[in-house]
Amino acid sequence: MARPSRHDGVLYKRSGSKIWWMRYRDRDGKRYLETTNTEDREEAQRRLREHLQARDQNTLQTIRRGEKLLFSEWVEFFLENYSQPPIRAAFTHRANIMALKHLKPEFDHQRLSEIDADQIERYLRSRLRQRNRVRTGAGYRELGIVKPATVHQEFRVLRRIFSVAVRKKLCPVNPCSGVEFPTSLKGLFRPHYVSWSEQQRIEAHAPRYFVNVIRIIAETGLRVHKELAPMRKDQVDLANAVVWIPESKTPNGVAEVPLTEIALEAFRDQLEISGPGPWLFPSHRSPVGYQRSFRHPWSRSLRRAGVTYFRLYDLRSTYATRLSAGGVADEWVTQLLRQGDSAVFKKYSQMKLQMKREALQKLNRHANELGSRSDTVLSQKGVLIQFWAYLG
């Protein structure tokens, strides 16, 4: 009978080396001797625990394969399987490719397991000091410093790449979770709340079909590129006042969306002017395609209306804010937005600040001087009478 092992896994150092090694056995009893690639004993203990836990969960072979996987190999797989439609929109795929033009030279020849938070922070600081380069006939010409928003977009793409690797058990932890972005991004992603008067002013200077776009997004919260632009006419059910979303950014986005009266009228008008094709917003360039982008009509409408530019996507944020301001509970707003994480609502709730400022403009500083106490009491009684009459 074989003698039982005294330890589940151990750490040791080889002679003449400062690096910690780990020794452990798999589920079949096969012994492995592997380096932890660190001189820190606590970090080595953490990696040993991860391997033992992966062994118990029967994912050890996946972890071992991920440790040998190069960043360049995983990026190619990611772009092919997790970046293109229908998983992600076409413009998202283009943004990923643009970001990887700068990420690949830094991480291309490294293993996924070797990339840590410190290296990512060094890359971000280096990028924030670089200048934009434009290729001309005479060579490359340097422009201004790279904007923090551009670098942050690259960081988001890198975080997404590692998130998929963690979900596939190819990487024990996402190194981006321990990264602190080197510069402040205050106000960079703050949504713009569109007031009703501002929306009407923009609609007055927009083409007829684009008025429908504005009203649909502001009344339903549909995503512009993934849900509204590629919408087919058979997805709209005017009789039941709903629209079906078969593909979306998240699994929760696939659902039936109820329509308000304004949205219903906008869909009805768009069906009348969209022509005989299957698309609700047919392309002006191709008779068989749909309109891929609303960027130019949106910019022109804002310019003609004299409104400072903001994103068309902010109409979705406006939809959430109007629901919240109308007294709808945050949980229901999250469901109407078709979001999987309720924390996303915090981004939209920041817009309430402007509405609070508008409410403060109605502050009555002479309320205690408008009448006598008896008048106040009588008015309070009148309110109570109306309230009990309503309940009755």
Report on the structure:
With 392 residues, this protein is mainly alpha-helical. It folds into three domains: 49 residues; 108 residues, Tyrosine recombinase, N-terminal domain (DNA polymerase, domain 1), CATH 1.10.150.130; 162 residues, Orthogonal Bundle (hpI Integrase, Chain A), CATH 1.10.443.10. Helices cover 49% and strands 10% of the residues. It has a three-stranded antiparallel beta sheet with strand order 1-2-3, with helices on one face. Helix 8 crosses helix 12 and helix 12 packs antiparallel against helix 13. It is elongated, with a radius of gyration of 29 Å. The mean pLDDT is 83.
Secondary structure elements and pairings:
Elements: E1 9-13, E2 20-25, E3 31-35, H1 41-56, H2 60-68, H3 71-81, H4 90-107, H5 117-129, E4 131-136, E5 139-145, H6 148-167, H7 196-204, H8 208-220, H9 224-228, E6 236-237, E7 242-245, E8 255-258, H10 261-273, H11 295-305, H12 314-325, H13 330-337, H14 345-349, H15 352-360, H16 373-391
Antiparallel strand pairs: 1-2, 2-3, 4-5, 6-7, 7-8
What is the alpha-carbon Rg in Å?
Answer: 29 Å
What is the number of strand segments?
A: 8
Question: First CA to last CA: what distance?
Answer: 84 Å
Which residues form runs of ≥5 with pLDDT under 50? none
The CATH architecture of the largest domain: Orthogonal Bundle
Total DSSP helices: 16
Short description:
By secondary structure, the chain is mainly alpha-helical.
